[in-house]
Structure formats: structure tokens, C-alpha cells
Amino acid sequence: MNSNFIGCFSAEWIKKRRSFSSWLVIAGGLFVPVISVIIFFVYPKQLLAIHASGHFWNMLFQKSWQMMAFMLLPMGLVLAVSLVTQLEFKNNSWKQVHTSPVLYSHIYFSKLLVLLLMLVQLFLVFNTGIWISAWIPSLLISDIPYPDYAFNYGKILTLNAGYFIGSLPLLALQYMISLQFRNFLVPVGTGLALIIGGMIALTWKYIYMVPSAYTALYFLQSTESTAPAHSLTYWSLGYFLTFTFLGYWLYISRKVKG
Amino acid sequence: MFCAETRGLSHQFSGQPAALNNICMQVPAGSIYGFLGPNGAGKTTTLRILLGLIKKQQGEVFLFDKPLHRHRVEVLKNVGTMIESPSLYGHLTAYENLLLLQKIFKCPRSRISEVLVTVGLPDTGNKKASAFSLGMKQRLSLAVALLHNPKLLILDEPTNGLDPNGIIEIRDLLKKLNEQSGVSIIISSHQLYEVEKLVTHIGVISKGCMVFQGTLENLVSQWQQNISLIIECSNLHRSAEIAGSQGIHAKAINGRLQMLLPEKRMISSLNRAFVEAGIDIYEMKTDRKDLESIFMELIK
Ligand SMILES: Nc1ncnc2c1ncn2[C@@H]1O[C@H](COP(=O)(O)OP(=O)(O)OP(=O)(O)O)[C@@H](O)[C@H]1O
Ligand SMILES: [Mg+2]
Which of A154, B25, B66, B113 measures 20 to 30 Å from A240, CA to CA? Predict the structure, then answer.
């Protein structure tokens, strides 16, 4: 990577410090685990059932991802992406960004890279959170054993990779829209409408073409034993590349840059 | 050599009358260029086009003699800017706001505390920029513009929101930068008196047209060329005749005699002739204008 890009990226990374979107990554990642812990305290039987199942981690991850994949992850994506670009609009700082000696492509792709890394952070927090949600009850409730089961890293990694790739189209689409509008409500409103539309149409036969439903579809696929009819991975990557480059083109074609 | 130049710059925002009309701005290297005009004259629009923030529609823009659209990144390395409202990240501290630019410009980190001292914000510590007063934000914006030791500073109303001491401080700072480091400066303002003591050149813009450009002395001498002498006396008709007989073309305007200011020698002989003809003189004055009223006249 060229050193100008690294400079530009470091600047973008600093902007994220203490911003609302960086809190959102942590809160979003811990939300489901915290809910799980509360549920396990109120209904310890549920956790005991998972312990008794013989596929402890598998079941716990499925349960946790279920809540995440349908609503939280797509909504978090919409919010966090819009917040990152909103930072420039809100602070009137596009003019500062665009009078710095950096290529427009560096600006666009370093912001995108920040968003991707935030997504990785979210996944790390979430996975750690899932483990903690099994561990804390074992400490405090005497009946519940320590989750001392073999951890299939390969499987967990594949699961995460699937959700990650499934998140990319919505991330890029949201990035594209939110760069175009000063008004925060436009990207957020569009994003939420797409997610809700996707949920409603989940059984539609062309749902595999609706990118806002991909994380939910991935969850459904991962629980079925039959092989999926359409490759979500290819569709996701295709959409991701399309939105990314369309977004870039729209971004550099803006007549007013601050 | 010009450090900033526009040729035939015209601009129109969609659905509105032209905001800029054939602006030819020429900022000599090493100068302090006051860019003056009333609200809505087109100062900010010109500066935004000069920096590539608005896509230019007609005309050409050069920075350091290079066309902006082909050398944008290269020329911007030597430009420090502050356009209109402060553009600071409210959730970051003063230091962090500068740190992120230090990453881009790759200047030494020590510059950050240096410029903070320069603009008079040495110890804001953990305070976030959103909690700054307007004047503090303005100072921090100036620090942002100065961080990488630019050769050209483009400042759009930098003293907006500063206290009187702050204004003097900033003015002295700019003067020092110009004299000691040869930094060229474009500074916009509504008021001539604000920048009069600072600038070497001015450009006056009114309703999207450049109505004057040059040095302050140019401006004054240009207006000095047609100063009138105005005389109030007891016999308008007779006095005009006397003036005519001395070869001076005088007109009666508003009950007073008015003529182009003659040489001093001519004034005294004219005066003598009036007295000899028994005409009483009540008042004799010129309409010589001070800089401020020349300016007001220009932007009318
Ligand atoms: N984004 C925009 N859309 C439409 N018209 C605009 C826009 N920006 C500026 N204008 C118009 O262009 C003209 C010049 O505005 P500009 O901001 O350049 O004035 P200015 O000289 O900087 O004024 P001020 O001293 O108030 O800052 C004004 O008539 C303004 O209404
Ligand atoms: Mg302005």
C-alpha cells in the first residue's frame, strides 16, 4: 500500500475515536450476549438444555446469531455507516477533507476500509460476547457447569465469514447513499425500509436478489441441511463490488465537494 | 508570478442569477491580498472554486501557475485553508484534530504543539472541540491551516467571532508569517478597515463582479483623479463666468459651484478674482474621499 493511502487511512481512523459509531460497534456486539445472560439467569433451564444437547457451542452460536442476523446486524450496519459519513457533514469538514492533498480515491477507499474494519471489530466483540454469555452464568449459578467443550474454530470461522460476506452489500449500498445526502434521515430511512422490506419478503422466490436480507438468508441456510439453491456468496460479492464502484463514481462526480 | 490566479471565472448556481461574472483574480506571490465585498458578493464562492470545492463551470484556475484540475494534490500540499464556518471534528480534542492532518501531511509531530502555541491555544487538554467557544474554534481552524507550513494561506473571514485582542493578535501573526516566511495570504472580509493595515493588495468584488483589483495606493490615486472643488458663494452665475474666464469649466450643482480640482495656484487666483468681483465666499471644499468611502462607493 502506498504511504499516502496509509496517511489518509490513519486520519480516518483517528476520526472514529470516541465517535458514536465506535460505541455502536461495542454496544451492538454486546447487546445479544447481554440479553442471553439475562435470559439464562431468569430461565437457567434454557442454558442447561444447551449444555445437555451435546453440541454446546453450535447451539449457543446459532441462538445468538439468530437474533443478530435478522435485525440487529443489518440495522447496526445502516446506522454505523451513516454515522461515519455523517461526521463530515455534521462538522462541515468535507471542505477540509477535500482541500487536503489526497486523492479522492484514497479518501473514498480509506473510509470504506475503516467501515470494513469496524465490521471485523463488531464480529470480534460479538464472538467474545457469546463465549462470555456462557461463562458468566457458570460462575454465578451453581447448577451450571463451566463451558468446557471442544471449540471447532474452523466451523465458527466459516460461520462468521458467511455473515461477514452477507453484510458487505448492505454496507457498500449504505456507504454509497450516505455519501450523497447531508440529511442523516435519508440514508437511515432508506436502509431501514430496505431491511423491513427484506424481512417481509423473506419467503419470496426472488429474495436472493435483495441484498438487505442476506444475513437473515444466511442464517436460514446455515440451519438447513439441504444445499442452498443460490450462492449467497457470489451474489453478495457481486453486489458489494457493484455498489462500491458505483458509489465511487457518484462520489467523484459530485459537483459540490464542501 | 501569481500564487493564485483565476481567468474569466463565471459561475451560476442552478436556477439562480450568475453568482460570479468573469472574475480575474490575480494574487502576486508574497502579497497579502484582501478580498473584499459585501454579503453575498461571491467571495466564498470564488475561494471554493479556487480550491476545487465547487466544480468550475467557466474559466480557469491556477495555483502556483499550475492548472488546478490537473495538479490538485500536488499544489494543495502548499496551501492552508480556512473556508467559512470552522470544519473541526467536535468529538475530538484540539490535538487530535491536528493529529489526523499531521498523518496526511507527514510533518513532524512537534508541529502540532507549535501551531497550538502560535494561535494561542496551548492548553485545552482533553476539552473537545465541540465545547470550544466560537473564537477558540476559529483559532483552532487557523492552526489547522498553518500546520504544514503552507506557502499560501486562503482564509475566508478568519477574524469572525474573535475578540478585539484576538483580531489584533491574528493580524500580527499573519503579518509576521508574510514578512518572515514569505507566506502569501488571501484574506476575505466585508470591511476594508479590518484588513486595511494588513494587506498589500486588494480585490473588491460586488454582485459577482470584480470592481477593483490592485494595491491600496492604486485605488486611492485612481479616485484622486476626479476630485471636485465645491464652492458656496453669494453669486453663482457671476462666479461661474469668472471661473470660465480663467479657463476653468464650472457647473452649478445644488446651488453650489462645482469644478474638477484645479492646481493650487489656480485656486488662489480664482479666490482673488471672486473677492475683487465682490462675491462673498461662504465655503470652499473638496470631495476628496477617504479609503472607506471609496470602498463604499465601489460596492454600491
Ligand atoms: N450552494 C449554493 N446554492 C445556491 N446559491 C448559492 C450557494 N452558495 C452561494 N450561493 C449564492 O451565491 C452568491 C454568492 O455567495 P457567497 O457565499 O460567495 O457570498 P460571500 O461574498 O461569501 O458572502 P458573505 O460575506 O456573506 O460570506 C449569493 O447570492 C448566494 O446566495
Ligand atoms: Mg462568505
Answer: A154
CB contact under 8 Å between B144 and A19, yes or no, is no
Predicted TM-score of the model (pTM):
0.89
Q: Which of A10, A14, A251, A254 to mutate to test the interface with B (most CBs of B within 10 A)?
A: A14
| ipTM score | 0.90
Structural domain containing residue B235 = 227-288
Q: Do B87 and A18 touch (CB under 8 A)?
A: no
Distance of CA B255 to the CA centre of its chain: 38
Closest Cα in chain A, distance from residue B79 (Å)? 8
Nearest by CB to A101, which of B73, B83, B86?
Answer: B73
B21 lines ligand 1 (CB under 6 A): no
**How far is it, in rounded angstroms, from Cα A2 to Cα B183?**
30
For B162-204, what is each residue's pLDDT tens digit? Answer: 888 889 988 999 999 999 999 999 999 988 888 888 999 999 9
First CA to last CA across chain A, in angstroms?
Answer: 28
- Chain B hits for A84, CB-CB cut-off 8 Å, are none
Residue at which a domain ends, from B222, B238, B259 = B222
Tell me which residues of chain A have a C-beta less than 8 Å from any C-beta of chain B. 3, 7-8, 10-12, 14-15, 17-20, 87, 90-96, 98-103, 255-258
Q: In this structure, which ligand is nearest to the CA of B54?
A: 1
- Return the half-sphere exposure (C-beta side, CA atoms, 13 A cut-off) of residue A40: 29
Please state at what angle helix A56-67 crosses helix A44-53, rounded to 10 degrees.
Answer: 130
pLDDT at B226: 77
User: Is residue A118 within 8 Å of residue A168, measured between CB atoms?
Assistant: no
Place A229 in a pLDDT band, splitting at 50, 70 and 90: low
Whichever domain contains B280, its CATH number is 3.30.70
User: Chain A contacts of B101, Cβ < 8 Å?
Assistant: 11, 100
Q: How many separate domains does chain B show?
A: 2
Is B103 in the same domain as B150? yes
The alpha-carbon gap from A16 to the nearest alpha carbon of chain B, in Å, equals 9
pLDDT at residue B262, as a whole number: 87
pLDDT in tens, A142-178: 888 888 888 888 988 999 999 999 999 999 999 999 9
User: Which residue's C-alpha cell is 479522492?
Assistant: A104
